[in-house]
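Reopening this ticket.

The earlier resolution said the output was attached, but the attachment link was broken on my side. Pasting everything inline this time so it's all in one place.
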Amino acid sequence: MISIAVCDDDRNFADKMRDHLTVTSSSRKISSQIQLFYDGQDLVKSVKSGTRFDIIFLDIEMNFVDGLKAAEEIRKIDKIALIIYISSHSQYAIEAYRVRPFRFLVKPLELKQLEKCFAEAIDEIVVDDAYFRYVDGKQSVKIPLKEIVYFESDLRNVKIVLGDEVRIYREKLSHVEDVLTQAKVEFWRIHQSFLVNRRHVSQTKYSEVKMSNGVVLPISEARRNHIRQQYLTKISKSMVEEA
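Inline output:
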């Protein structure tokens, strides 16, 4: 079951979104539950009360609590939900990216755009079932990739940081990086000692990144331009313009 939220103060648009998503889910044989919200405040209240959504379609311009503020509050609670912004103005894209949206859709929205974006979101959720596997002594261990915040090189060991939990095993970080090139979950090598899960990067600056667990990690001088380019590329890819 895929749980979806649609938040837009244009009730007619929200109703149409629900209808389109229902049809698209059915055509892909996906069981979905769609909940409508007409203001960011109501959506935030629902998340704070414990409701979790796999995908959130979120309008930016709303009368009471807009989409940018709503997303900031949601990200304090839920680091993983796929946020898809919808706006009539593409200039919001860079500002919106600080809460790590999955896509940025521009109104007026065509059905093909929505179907493509929804399909990509489902594929991303399926990827979340992927695992990182390693051997610790004689024991084989697997960890969901979505739970790994970052890897850290520690002398001849690698630390796997999972929120507040840390696991350590004997390996080189370069080998971990090679293994992850085959994974669909994107990891960035920001430093000789750090390999971070892109989906857990909550804030990016020129010389450092802030992770979802609050830890701030340095970007080495040699990698800053490359990381900045990856960041800007993500912004451009998150935008789906009207054909």
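Reporter confirms the inline version is readable. Residues 11-27 form the longest helix (17 residues). The helical segments are 11-27, 40-48, 67-77, 93-96, 111-127, 173-180, 224-238.
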